Amino acid sequence: MVASPPDPRPHLVVVGNGMAGCRAVEEILARAPDRFRITIFGAEPRVNYNRIMLSPVLAGEKTFEDIIINGPDWYADNGIELISGDPVVGIDRAAKTVTAKSGIAISYDKLLIATGSDPFIIPVPGKDLPGVVTFRDLDDVDKMVAAAGLGGNAVVIGGGLLGLEAAHGLSLRGMQVTVLHLMPTLMERQLDEAAAWLLKTELERRGQTILTQADTAEIIGTNKVEGVRLKDGTEIPASIVVMAVGIRPSTILAKEAGLAVGRGIQVDDHMVSSDADILAVGECVEHDGQVYGLVAPLWEMCRSLADGLVGSENPYKGSVTSTKLKVSGIDLFSAGDFSGGEGCEDIVLRDATRGVYKRVIVKQDKIVGAVLYGDTADGNWYFDLLKKGEDITEIRDALIFGQAFASSGGATANPIDAVAALSDDAEICGCNGVSKGQVMACIAGGAQSLDAVRSGCKASASCGSCTGLVENLLALALGDKFAGERDNKPMCKCTSFTHEDVRAAILEKSLKEIPAVMQALSWSTPDGCSSCRPALNYYLLCAWPAEHKEDPQSRFVNERMHANIQKDGTYSVVPRMWGGVTTPKELRAIADAADKYGARMVKVTGGQRLDLFGIRKEDLPHIWADLNAAGMVSGHAYGKALRTVKTCVGSEWCRFGTQDSTGLGILLEQMTWGSWMPHKFKIAVSGCPRNCAEATIKDFGVICVDSGYELMVGGNGGIHLRGTDLLCKVATEEEALEYCGAFIQLYREEARYLDRTAPWIERVGLDYVKAKVVDDHEGRKALYGRFLHAQKYLQKDPWAERAAGKEAHLHQHIAEIRPFAVVGAH
Amino acid sequence: MVTADWLDIGPVDQLPALGARTLPVQGGEEIAIFRTANGSVYALLNKCPHKQGPLSQGIVHDTTVTCPLHNWRISLVTGEALGDDSGCVPTIPVKIDGGRILIARKEALQGVDG
Ligand code: SRM
Ligand SMILES: Cc1cc2nc3c(=O)[nH]c(=O)nc-3n(C[C@H](O)[C@H](O)[C@H](O)COP(=O)(O)OP(=O)(O)OC[C@H]3O[C@@H](n4cnc5c(N)ncnc54)[C@H](O)[C@@H]3O)c2cc1C
Ligand code: SF4
Ligand code: FES
Fold first, then answer.
1. Is residue B71 part of a domain?
2. B91 to chain A nearest CA, in Å?
3. Which domain holds residue B77?
4. Are residues A776 and A696 in the same domain?
5. Which residue, A45, A270, A727, A790, has most beta carbons within 10 Å?
6. From the alpha carbon of A574, which atom of ligand 1 is closest?
7. Which ligand 4 atom minimizes the distance to the CA of B72?
8. Single GO molecular-function term (chain B) (predicted)?
9. CATH number of the domain that B80 lies in?
10. CATH of the domain at A68
11. How far apart are the CA of A821 and the nearest CA of chain B, in angstroms?
12. d(CA A521, CA A467)
């Protein structure tokens, strides 16, 4: 049975001829060259190579020969027997033997399991079709290279490190590559939203298609892969599909042998498993609850293992890891924890012109994480400070500018002295090419604030990354006179730009996503705050109605749920009643819905419609479906949007009525419903100056008179009562509609988020609004045109979409616990 | 799957990033399961320490959730109210295994008779 010649030394058998297994052997040989007789089993039919370099091999930048770590000589020189191409299939712990697939059995004194990981295959139909490959060993690379030789389309499932390196290689080899990623952002374990956005933009620029939140339903094809179908129905053609969705420690052998296995094979600080004669190392182990998927921790494990084996203590204490992406031309680095949270402070540097984003996360004066994109020169320095737990108080101010700057004393030097020392022709603002001399001249010429410098010489007016320098120059020139206050308040603490600046930049620079705005305008936080995110979402929606993609994470609960949350966590539901008019059929449907879903109160609102209270979130899509079926749509009682159009009965019935106020109200509501605005917006139409519809406290009010319509704007009945101002008088309904649309569009395009029309008009002045909407005929028609254009995209009933299943997860429990059972939701 | 100490409540990808879903417990208190931007998962009772607001409906930021009713910020890690507010909501241990969410049985069933 055991066929080797007698050798008195204890026999060390290694299962796994990969990176950790061979490194462990190297470490043992370095300490005790002759202690063990060594046999290594490898499932792969080849010598030990550097697995991480498979990416450059796929990309055609390296060959297999280039990445061999230990060639045949190494085995021979060290008397190691390599049994390759023959996986071990069983361990008999009682007999202390291992058996390989070919049938050979070998006895061991010490066994080392270093089986690495298995790629995870998502269990979708078609996963076994020829043409579906993983990315783990040289055979996989050979398959991809062969497929690429035929050209065509490739789909990579998984937008993590491995997936993106596969996509890069296939794309360099001429394939049209689509990356499917389940999460909203690429490499979400290593990158924050800002860095992931930059990465995505760069990959798209290189011709890859990146689909996030893409959930694979099926791999299609009859005899081989033909494409991938997503859960939303999208089909993407492909002649090869690479699954790179994650790895699982390869633990089958250990489990079958009865060793303690959690997520990985459980080992102690010297890599010994629950059996004292069996060790394990590499990706297949779990140490202190952690499993690792990178090589750096393996090197540390191998040292502790070898020390332990030769009897000297050197406990492995776990590893902190850092990540780089091996895609040429993309510099990206991430280390530690960037989830933030209580007590964490973000230091962010963005340089839009160079495409740089750097973020260092500091907690209790120590670096706990770093994310760098575009300039990773200081990655290792940050990583080192992080691992050593170094106190960074002294260099905090200069930390983000990197090691060279921080250690040249840039940190401790007074920042004002530092700018004083600059020569006059030193460039301050890279975007607009403004030198220190020009900034100082501008200040001397009377610019006493940041805003004045920005408009005077354009310094810091574009991306804002030099704002700090300009402020220091102001302090240098003006001394105590410069208190730093702004004429125009910045949007929030994340930026030095005002609402107006941001809106202008969105249009000028064609910014279409929140991360794009943050990068272009040097946001000082990684992903904004709860005050700028909803504002940016609105500004983008307003600027690019046709292209805008909603960001639900930037909506407050009511706008996310399309209903108003109540103090007990239930919701109220308000269907639209056009102009306050309803029908017996609608009323019946509302009554039925109130009964069916147990509405605890039905109330007539101050906005002339009915409010059903106490509806549970699970029931929302159902009650909406019922109301939709009776012809009703969402009343947007929850939104920064058009709310209601109140009307009175008007000339149709009232003895004083001068015009059909009800009819005009309905027309106005039909034109304006669904529109998102800086704040809520209310309209009313009264049939005569008695004003029963209270039109003079609405954002837009109409008072009908014999000769036409008086258009009133800027009223507010809320916290600060404000009566409307007369905008103008018009003769026809058509004109009333046109002026209304134009007024709304001006408000939509120019007011700050969360300004209602009243404070906005107080700020810009009624004359300004009149000039734009009344006096400028062309301008008014253009505004009206833009409003109607936007409405083409906005007038979608959100209830109907939800009732049809959109965002269903918002309305369903994930599961339910009944004692002794868990019941899945669907 | 039900084991002695951990209950499997479903795959992680059923949780929206920066969002939450609810887990009613028959005879007990509803639990909210949160997922942060970088994929970490936390569980709290779905009940704000202020006035019982449903935390699952709040905006998730970093490792905190802002209550939808009166904007208290609650730590997902400790359950404590942050900033000037004080109060605490019980947390329930969660772990991820093979892409599935496991939640600690004992804490999840707190207060359930029998
Ligand atoms: C239901 C209703 C009261 C009622 O029972 O009649 C109501 C209910 C609420 N109002 Fe109102 N307002 C209602 C008519 C009004 C009116 C009267 C009107 O529209 O003619 C006003 C004064 C007019 C005005 O807006 O100028 C009004 C001024 C406010 C304000 C103060 C706004 C301001 O600019 O100062 C708020 C607070 C806010 O929006 O920030 C508010 C906020 C609210 C909120 C949304 C509070 C909240 O955030 O939860 C209430 C939601 C209850 C719910 O779940 O539905 N509500 N609210 C009315 C719904 C009208 C509708 O059909 O859509
Ligand atoms: C394409 C790619 C790129 C990567 N890039 C990086 C990177 O940039 N940085 C980084 O840190 N890490 C990277 N990694 C991860 C890194 O390669 C792994 O962390 C490392 O290889 C793990 O070493 P290991 O010895 O545990 O597993 P492996 O290197 O996988 O070795 C395990 C070996 O055991 C063999 N085996 C399994 N079962 C048996 C059995 N029953 N009998 C015999 N043999 C068996 C396997 O065939 C394999 O050869 C990358 C991985 C891949 C695939
Ligand atoms: S006035 Fe409006 S906000 Fe105040 S309690 Fe009544 S409904 Fe609520
Ligand atoms: S109930 Fe949560 S803040 Fe009031």
1. yes
2. 16
3. 6-108
4. yes
5. A790
6. 62
7. 3
8. metal ion binding
9. 2.102.10.10
10. 3.50.50.60
11. 7
12. 11
Overall average pLDDT of the B80-106 stretch:
90
Touching check for A808 and chain B: CB below 8 Å? no
- For residue A742, what pLDDT is reported? 98
Say which residue the tokens 């609105």 belong to.
A538
Return d(Cα B44, Cα B108) in angstroms, integer.
9
Of residues A746 and A479, the one with the higher pLDDT is A746
Give me the residues paired with residue A821 across strands: A818
pLDDT for res A5: 61
Tens digits of residue pLDDT in A181-230: 998 899 988 999 899 999 999 999 999 999 998 999 999 999 999 999 99
Q: Which of A537, A555, A573 is the C-terminal boundary of a domain?
A: A555
How far away is chain B from the Cα of A549, in angstroms, using its nearest Cα? 17
Q: Both A256 and A110 in a single domain?
A: yes
Structurally, chain A folds into a number of domains equal to 5
Which residues does chain A have within 8 Å of residue B15's beta carbon, measured at their own beta carbons? 809, 814
Among A182, A338, A344, whose Cβ lies nearest the Cβ of B38? A338
Instruction: Enumerate residues 545 to 564 of chain A having a beta carbon within 8 A of any beta carbon in chain B.
Output: 552-553, 556-557, 561
Q: A196 in a domain, yes or no?
A: yes
CA torsion sign for A335, A341, A343, A345 is: positive
Q: Which ligand is nearest to the CA of A84?
A: 2
Q: Which residue has the tokens 């399309």?
A: A562
Residue B2 has pLDDT above 70, yes or no: no
Question: Does A688 appear as a known binding residue?
Answer: yes
Average pLDDT over residues A223-243: 95
Question: CA nearest A194 in B: which residue?
Answer: B37
Phi first, then psi, for residue A191 (nearest 5°) are: -120, 145
Give yes or no: residues A107 and A216 share one domain: no
Q: Look up residue B48 and give its amino acid.
A: C
Band of pLDDT at residue B112, cut at 50, 70 and 90: confident
Q: In terms of residue numbers, what domain contains A654?
A: 641-795
CB-facing half-sphere around the CA of A34: CA atoms within 13 A = 2
- Report the DSSP pairing between strands A427-429 and A366-373: unpaired
pLDDT score, position A409: 58
Average pLDDT over residues B32-46: 90
Please check whether residues A156 and A110 belong to one and the same domain: no
The alpha carbon of residue B62 is apart from the nearest alpha carbon of chain A, in Å, by 5
Question: Cα A634 vs. chain centroid, distance in angstroms?
Answer: 29
Task: Tell me the pLDDT tens digit for each residue of A622-671.
Answer: 999 999 999 999 999 999 999 999 999 999 899 999 999 999 999 999 99
Judge if the beta carbon of residue B69 lies within 6 A of ligand 4: yes
Q: State whether A272 and A152 are in the same domain.
A: no
A132 with A241: CB under 8 angstroms? Answer: yes
User: Based on the domain organization, do A780 and A661 belong to the same domain?
Assistant: yes
The residue of chain B nearest to residue A190, with distances taken between CA atoms, is B38
Buried-state track A784-796, b at ≥16 Cβ within 10 A, e below 16: bebbeebbeebee
Query: ∠ at Cα A46 (A44, A47), nearest 5°?
Result: 115
Same structural domain, A228 and A264: no
B113 assigned to some structural domain: no
Q: Which of B8, B22, B42, B92 to mutate to test the interface with A (most CBs of A within 10 A)?
A: B22
Contact list, A552 vs chain B (CB under 8 Å): 19
Q: Is the pLDDT of residue A3 over 70?
A: no
Q: Is residue B78 part of a domain?
A: yes
Ligand 1 contact, A636 CB (< 6 A): no
A487 has a pLDDT exceeding 80: no
Ligand 2 atom, smallest distance to A58 CA: 1
Q: Which of A192, A342, A822 has its CB closest to that of B37? A: A192
Quick one: A779 and A688 in the same domain?
yes
Instruction: With CB atoms and an 8 Å threshold, state whether B9 touches A822.
Output: yes
Mean local confidence (pLDDT), A281-293: 95
Among A473, A482, A483, A485, CA closest to A442: A473
Q: Which of A22, A39, A49, A51 to probe ligand 2 with, by most ligand atoms within 8 A of CB?
A: A51
- CA-wise closest residue to A739 among A790, A671, A677: A671
What confidence category does residue A823 fall into, taking pLDDT thresholds of 50, 70 and 90? confident
Residue A544 in any domain: the answer is yes
- The structure's pTM equals 0.81
Of A280, A309, A338, the residue at which a domain comes to its end is: A309
Q: What is the pLDDT of residue B114?
A: 46
Q: Is 90 exceeded by the pLDDT of residue B83?
A: no
What integer best gives the mean pLDDT of chain A?
92
**A654 marked among binding-site residues:** yes
Task: Give the pairing of strands A681-686 and A700-705.
Answer: parallel
